Amino acid sequence: MEQHQNKERLLTKPLALLTFGHLITDVGQGALPVLLPFLKTAFNLTYTQIGVVVLVQNLTSSVIQPLFGYLTDRVSLPWLIPASVLLAGIGTAIIGIMTSYYTLLAAVVVGGLGIACFHPQASKSAHLVSSAATKGRSMGLFSVGGNLGLAIGSIAMSFALNSPGVLTNTLYFIIPGLIMALLLYRNLQDISPTETAPQSAAASHAGITNGQSLNYGLLAILLGFVFIRSSIHTGLTTYIPLYYIDYLSGSPVYASYLLAVFLLAGVVGTYTGASLSDRFGRKTVIMGSILSTLPLIGLFQYTTGLATLIVLALTGLSLISSFATTVVLAQEMMPGYVGMASGLTIGFSIGLGGVGATILGYVADHFGVPSVFTVLSVLPIAGVVLASFLPGKLFKR
Known about the structure:
397 residues, mainly alpha, Growth Hormone, Chain: A, 77% helix, transport, MFS transporter, FSR family, fosmidomycin resistance protein
């Protein structure tokens, strides 16, 4: 009985380590949007060039993740977890000391590769250390680490850029990366499970039965949904600071607070959505997430003060509430290829959101920054259509 209770316990030491590792790894991703207005001024960049910076980060940190997922499904590489946390920290740390646009892109590549190495192996480990009944909530906790890292990164970078030294203060971001890498290295055995947890209970949430072959059409629909959600998320995190600093001539500190509110609300949404998906089904949460986002983005430009903060918080809460749920659904659809499933959902499809950011940069250069939010307010419609074709039933309890 005691052994069974331990299996059902949600927060275990391995999951806690992986969650905090996720937090530290994603700090750099949260810091970059706050950096962009300063980099734009320092290197005299256009909005299209800013979009390229975001695209490069997404390509290197996310799009190539399925390659690492494929590799980790065949060879256990637990050492990648601490090594990648360190590499991600190095990439963020050296951005502020780069002297040209091309060396800036090189620094972004370094940090991006660290992120790409971390997620497939770490999310696979988070999946395997969890019992079948808690996979949604476990992935929710693991994902909370990443989304909290995004929020902390934006706050920490805002503080760094408003302190003496300005851009060179990015060097301090190596410290948490180094500490976390050492901690993970000392606990490699705890975060390196060798046996898979039972799949039957988890698969039932997605309407998948044992022995059922992978439906590539449904997987493509899921990845398409993740791409739409990621394009919206990347667009908002990139253009919230730029809108307030460049278009409204507002305070960079206030802009970073707005971004932090959006990202912190996403942290709450991540775990809330994942927990609800264990109870009501994956499709219900995914559909509810994108439907509730639909009216919110269009309100953003028409609010001020407290109303803006409320709208941004609700947008972050609703948009990101499907994050962990889509990862778990893909893992359930691809039993035996958990690393690949993680790489596809956390990496490839999300990384393609960087393509959306580049296109939005072109829109901003030619039609103005406010037009970006007009485009973003329409994208959830495509997400609703795709979500309706996902496996499972709505409101199944």
